[in-house]
Amino acid sequence: MPTKDSLIELETKLAYQENLLEELNKVVCRQQDQIDDLHVKLRSLQERANELATGASAGETEAEIPPHY
Known about the structure:
Elements: H1 4-60
């Protein structure tokens, strides 16, 4: 049968583990928010790059003389 001291020790360890679990959960939630934000930014950059690529290829068909000539 467990002694009173061993029960207190187990309860203390459990309390520390519960606290650690809460802290880790907060970290994971913050990281997921950052990942979601980065996905949005990446999509925006991809769309912008596609727009620039499309605009550049359309501009290549026209021979433009630079303004300093």
